[in-house]
Amino acid sequence: MNLQPIEYPSNIRISEEIESNFQKFDVFLEELNKMELPPEVVVSLNTQLENLPLFSGSEEQFLIKLKNTKMVLLKILYQEVHVVPKSHYRDLWMALGLSIIGIPIGILFFLFLDNSIYIAIGIALGFVIGVLIGNYLDNQAEEEGRQLSKEYL
Predict the structure, then answer these.
(1) What's the rounded Cα separation, in Å, for the pair 148 and 84?
(2) DSSP 3-state assignment of 147?
(3) Among 102, 104, 86, 85, which residue's Cα sits nearest to residue 94?
(4) CA atoms of 67 and 95, how far apart (whole Å)
(5) Which pLDDT tens digit goes with each residue over 21-61?
(6) Dist CA 120 CA 129 (whole Å)
(7) Is the Cβ–Cβ distance between 42 and 1 less than 8 Å?
(8) Crossing angle of the two packed helices 59-81 and 39-49, in degrees rounded to 10
């Protein structure tokens, strides 16, 4: 079962920006069609895609709708079959490493060693730890075939 192809809404003037974003969206859908997705996930994705050709609004609103639809599709893929875009975990764990690991470590160093430079060292350490964890999880997702070939965010 494949994803339904999408068409331009009839009331939207096709500018270069819309054409470019639409082509990127088509590449995204082609990659999803190559994956073996469960039928219930395909139905859920097709339900989201049905509304695009029926859109009535300005060109700017259509671009926003196109980007929001891509985000919704990625969210469905993540929740249902744990498929993620390339570098998803790296980006997620970079932020988590900074905030959850780095800042507390930096504050602990600052309190025990009484030098505020250790806050920056803790943040850098958290950043590195977060990137390492994220890269490990991205590699694991790629080995399991759960990673898309591009960053679609």
Answers:
(1) 6
(2) strand
(3) 102
(4) 23
(5) 888 888 888 888 888 889 898 899 988 888 887 777 788 88
(6) 14
(7) yes
(8) 170
Q: What are the backbone dihedrals phi and psi of residue 57, each rounded to the nearest 5 degrees, phi first? A: 175, -170
3-state secondary structure of 1: coil
Helices (H), the chain: 16-34, 39-49, 59-81, 88-96, 103-113, 117-143
**Burial (CB count <10 Å: 0-12, 13-18, 19+), residue 42:** middle
Sign of the alpha-carbon dihedral angle for 24, 32, 145, 130? positive
Q: Which pair of structure tokens corresponds to residue 75?
A: 């969210």
Dihedral sign (CA 41, 44, 49, 50): positive
Number of H helices, E strands in the chain: 6, 0
Place of tokens 């990625």: 74
CA pair distance 20, 31, nearest whole angstrom: 17
Q: Which of 77, 75, 66 is nearest to 35 (CA)?
A: 77
> What's the sign of the alpha-carbon dihedral 91, 97, 100, 103?
negative
Q: What is the pTM of this model?
A: 0.82
Q: Can you say whether the dihedral through the CA atoms of 147, 132, 101, 122 is positive or negative?
A: negative
